[in-house]
Amino acid sequence: MKTNQINMTVTNTKTKPSNGQPYRRLWGRAKGKPLSPYQSGLVDTKLAEVSIDTESPLAGLESFDNIRMEIGFGGAEHLLYRATENPNTAFIGVEPFLNGIAKALAGMDRREIKNIRLHHGDVWQFLENLPDNSLSHIDILYPDPWPKARHYKRRLIQEDLISEFHRILKPGKTLHFASDIPSYVDWALLRICRHGGFQWHAQTCADWQTPYPDWPGTRYEAKAHREGRTPHYFRFVRACD
Ligand SMILES: C[S@@+](CC[C@H](N)C(=O)[O-])C[C@H]1O[C@@H](n2cnc3c(N)ncnc32)[C@H](O)[C@@H]1O
């Protein structure tokens, strides 16, 4: 099967979680085509200003009503759209791919968006410093599929990440996971449902076939459509204890 992961230059970076757990491997592209001078300038001058403090990821966000996180925002289309739509919500965007970070910075600059904070790197570098019950929403939209069985361990969604989502999401709040890869859909559904701390309210196929409300789409979703793959949209609610 042709997927957006094939033909990718794969780098294998070790990242250190914040709580002294063993190093994790970060699989995927760290950098693509050269940045424009405008993008490079933003990375040099603005990235530090809007980067989260990995030791204290919510520092400076106290005045916002809610805090959401998007992991692997790619070209930042969805992140920028949601942040514009919800100015009283703070958005933490996580992306190890420098070109994606540069696109987010350019969008924030051009649209004067003030409610996005970024982390250039792996989500595990700060996840464990997020307090319990602190987020109102998490998005994982079209994570790298790693379709070969021997690469499944590289997938972002794993049991320990699901447990962390359960810890940091407020009860009653939502986790959105979208994918166009059937084996990843099965993989994620099995693990999230098996965790036991999330409710999946789907009654019919229409639930997972219907995009999220006011959905702007993403770049990878457009590619999936072009290549004949079907998007699946899952909504999980963090159960009350
Ligand atoms: C297939 S792309 C999807 C991008 C975007 N969500 C979209 O739908 O257009 C997956 C993204 O996840 C990012 N990614 C991979 N591993 C990650 C990790 N450990 N933490 C955060 N993002 C990650 C990749 O760099 C890539 O941008």
Textual characterization of the structure:
It is built from eight helices and nine strands. The chain is globular, with a radius of gyration of 17 Å. The protein has one domain (11-238): Rossmann fold (3-Layer(aba) Sandwich), CATH 3.40.50. 36% of the residues are buried. The strands form two sheets. A seven-stranded mixed sheet has the order 5-4-3-6-7-9-8, with helices on both faces. A two-stranded antiparallel ribbon has the order 1-2. It is an alpha/beta fold and 241 residues long. Mean pLDDT is 90; it is low at 1-12. The chain binds S-adenosylmethionine. S-adenosylmethionine binds next to β2 and α8. S-adenosylmethionine is lined by residues 4, 26, 28, 71-75, 94-97, 100, 122-123, 141-144, 156, 218-221.
How is the topology of this model organized?
Layout: E1 11-15, E2 24-28, H1 37-45, H2 47-50, E3 66-71, H3 77-85, E4 89-94, H4 98-110, E5 116-119, E6 135-141, H5 159-168, E7 169-179, H6 182-195, E8 198-200, H7 205-209, H8 219-226, E9 232-238
Parallel strand pairs: 3-4, 3-6, 4-5, 6-7
Antiparallel strand pairs: 1-2, 7-9, 8-9
Helix pairs in contact: 1-4
Bound molecules: S-adenosylmethionine.
